[in-house]
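Researcher: I'd like a candidate sequence for this fold, 219 residues long. If you have to choose between options at a position, lean toward the conservative one.
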């Protein structure tokens, strides 16, 4: 009797007559296979998301490099004298959102005047050629120094002068075929100087036109 009690039972046909052993093994196998395929699916999903993220990052980097190159082409080297901080504009002042060009106002207008001179049109033509190749919106901003405007010049304030200068830049853009719906103008007068108005050189640089080119996908 003692030996019978110590005997190890591998399979009890009476207790599990309704569940053959092969079915139990088969069910375990199917469960393991299901878990295996779920694990593969999870790894595939993570890999695809990682691939998508890496691709987007690469595309963004390529776009930035392309736009840095494009920006360098906006201003030919032989015409850089008409731009304040030309080196900064052509090398670093560009990103996915857009670029800023700062044009020296004395190059574009005579003192106290809002009429574009011949040299101004030559400078603006280079920018217009660039605008033909990109999808953008452009904000054209006028600025002056703090010298009071003479009423005999036809303006009541520097604010009015700066706005009219920006308006004439936009008007020239339109005459060259630029869609006016892409353009916005603003005039700030003497209220946003980039240098103190303490020397003639600083005043000259405060008299400027800024053209902010904003790439449309960033709006």
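Model: Candidate sequence:
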């Amino acid at each position: 009797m003692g030996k019978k009690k110590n005997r190890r039972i591998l399979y009890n046909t009476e207790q599990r007559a309704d569940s053959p052993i092969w079915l139990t093994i088969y069910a375990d196998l199917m469960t393991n296979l299901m878990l295996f395929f779920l694990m593969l699916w999870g790894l595939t999903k993570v890999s695809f998301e990682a691939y998508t993220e890496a691709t987007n990052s690469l595309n963004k980097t390529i776009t930035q490099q392309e736009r840095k190159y494009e920006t360098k082409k906006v201003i030919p080297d032989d015409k850089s004298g008409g731009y304040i901080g030309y080196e900064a504009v052509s090398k670093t002042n560009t990103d996915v959102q857009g670029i800023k060009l700062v044009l020296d106002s004395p190059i574009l207008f005579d003192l106290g005047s809002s009429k574009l001179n011949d040299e101004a049109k030559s400078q603006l033509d280079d920018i217009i050629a660039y605008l033909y190749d990109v999808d953008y919106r452009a904000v054209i901003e006028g600025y002056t120094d703090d010298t009071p405007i003479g009423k005999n010049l036809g303006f009541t304030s520097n604010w009015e002068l700066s706005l009219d200068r920006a308006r004439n830049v936009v008007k020239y853009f339109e005459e060259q075929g630029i869609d006016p719906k892409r353009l916005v103008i603003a005039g700030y007068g003497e209220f946003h100087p980039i240098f103190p108005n303490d020397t003639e050189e600083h005043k000259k640089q405060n008299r400027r036109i800024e053209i902010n080119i904003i790439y449309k996908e960033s709006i």
